[in-house]
Specification:
It contains 22 helices and 14 strands. It is α/β, with parallel strands linked by helices. Strands 3-4-5-6-7 form a five-stranded parallel β-sheet, with helices on one face. It has a three-stranded antiparallel β-sheet with strand order 8-9-10. A two-stranded antiparallel sheet has the order 1-2. The protein is globular. This is Enolase. Pfam families: Enolase_C, Enolase_N.
């Protein structure tokens, strides 16, 4: 399985030969002999390699903007190997659909950190399912010890889980999670259970609330931190029992090469402020209306200003060569945590409700910083929400993950089981709202459809309960064909059933 990361080599060509608009040319600069290759030459190389080597997949075979290269590769090798889009699709529902429609890929790489919440990751997976794509769930090579990727892969029954060679502890952590689930399922299948015992826990559980959310810089195998959180559940007002349960989350470092990915917020990214305006000669504005210290600014320049606030900002921006995450940690503590502390554990029903709140907080920060306005289109606002440039992907996804583990625990599930249930629910609702029995004909026998019907209509609840994941996927694919005939988009239809983008609140 190959991942040549061609976007990087396309960018290297543009930089080396000063051809900023070049598409389809690649500069192999790492070897002693520097080589330039065109898309046609690369395609011939891939074809020759597939004939001689037992290759099963090629990921990022061309740059993310070299659509013609991807199209030719699919035409030549799409029936022989898995052609995987990573930088090309960035775990974004609309982009996955576009690439599938243009026949650029047959497999989508799913990285939750590219989009920034578990619900949006579910949307990306479901679009891939509906378009008939295989999926591979992937880590980032710079990661903490967290099994998020393994849980997502198990939930989706993915073709593959890509978490690298087993040389680093954080990779073994993810593989170990799969092993544990397998052992648990084997034991479960061999155990005879009696009827569920009656246990009166309702009053006690209803008293449990989120008592604390602690955020910190979590170490990674790269020596650069990400954001980690601990969510505590206990009895409100009790010192002794305020930490009865603990749930954690930590997400991978940074973006890969995809230009459309959610932002891993680091401390060298500086928002506009009176301090920036006061010393504007020291900063350079970025296209996203944030600022950086100019490269030529030195510590002596900062000392000359004799301003404690400027010094503090400078020192923060220099930590880990600008890759510290104190600002993202502060966003969890000061903006996100107050919205969840005090919430009853019993009130947290599903991941989508949590992520909707997180996206609302991201949107409010964007509105306050004038990154969006009430006059912006729905598409523009959703694009800003997906980028997470204000609170940071590392802040938002980490909280999404930790609270999802809390919800799963309340329901007596592992995280992968909760994620699968949410996938099944969205597919069931989509099928029920777009044809029901009609689209399931040939997938489910008529007798079974009859049992799931009430007053001649299929309920989504019965579809979710009675149909397997694979049957629901087939039903979703049937819905997709119907939508395509009507000129409608699958991702837009799915968004109506997992309503996390509450855009109207910003207008």
């Amino acid at each position: 399985a190959f991942d040549p990361a061609l976007s990087e080599l396309s960018n290297a060509y543009r930089k080396e030969f000063k051809e900023e608009e070049s598409i389809g040319n690649y500069y192999f600069w790492r070897g002693e002999e520097k080589v330039v290759a065109s898309r046609a030459q690369l395609l011939e190389l891939y074809k020759k390699a597939v004939e001689e080597i037992p290759i099963i997949s090629i990921e990022d075979a061309f740059a993310e903007d070299d659509y013609e290269g991807w199209r030719r590769l699919m035409a030549e090798l799409g029936d022989k190997i898995f052609i995987i889009g990573d930088d090309l699709v960035t775990t974004k529902d609309s982009t996955i659909e576009e690439c599938a429609d243009q026949k650029l890929i047959n497999t989508a790489l799913i990285k939750a950190n590219q989009i920034g919440t578990l619900s949006e990751t579910v949307l990306a997976v479901l679009v891939a399912f509906g378009k008939g794509l295989d999926i591979v769930v992937s880590h980032r090579s710079k990661s903490p010890n967290d099994d998020m990727e393994a849980q997502i892969a198990l939930a989706a029954n993915a073709l593959g889980l890509k978490t690298g060679g087993g040389a680093n502890t954080e990779r073994l952590f993810k593989y170990g999670a799969v092993t544990k689930v397998m052992k648990d399922m084997i034991k479960l299948s061999r155990t005879a259970f009696k009827e569920e015992p009656r246990v009166e826990l309702g009053d006690f559980i209803d008293k449990l609330v989120i008592t604390e959310i602690i955020a910190y810089e979590e170490p990674t195998n790269a020596g650069i931190p990400t954001v980690g959180v601990e969510v505590y559940v206990g009895l409100k007002g009790s010192k002794r029992y305020r930490k009865l349960l603990r749930f954690t989350g930590a997400t991978p470092l940074g973006t890969s090469a995809g230009v459309d990915e959610a932002i891993h917020l680091v401390d060298s990214i500086i928002e506009d402020s009176p301090l920036v305006a006061r010393y504007q000669e020291m900063f350079v504005e970025q296209p996203d209306r944030t600022y950086r210290f100019k490269k030529e600014i030195t510590e002596e320049d900062i000392k000359e200003k004799d301003d404690p606030d400027l010094t503090e900002l400078w020192l923060k921006a220099q930590r880990y060569k600008g890759k510290g995450c104190k600002n993202a940690v502060d966003n969890v503590v000061n903006i996100i945590a107050p919205e969840f502390i005090g919430r009853k554990m019993s009130e947290l029903k599903n991941i989508a409700d949590v992520d909707k709140k997180l996206l609302l907080l991201e949107g409010k920060a964007a509105l306050m910083r004038k990154k969006i306005s009430k006059d912006d289109s729905r598409e523009k606002i959703i694009e800003v929400l997906q980028r997470k440039a204000n609170l940071g992907m590392n802040a938002v996804l980490t909280v999404s993950l930790a609270i999802a583990r809390l919800i799963a625990h309340v329901q007596g599930r592992d995280l992968w089981e909760l994620l699968r249930e949410e996938m099944k629910e969205v597919m069931a609702k989509t099928i029920a709202a777009n044809g029901g029995a009609e689209v399931l004909t040939g997938i489910v026998d008529s007798a079974s459809l009859g049992k799931m019907s009430s007053d001649g209509k299929l309920s989504w609840e019965s579809l979710k309960t009675e149909l397997s994941l694979s049957e629901l996927v087939q039903g979703l694919q049937a819905v997709e064909k119907k939508l395509k005939q009507q000129g409608r988009k699958l991702y837009e239809t799915l968004r109506t059933q997992i309503s996390i983008y509450d855009v109207e609140i910003f207008k």
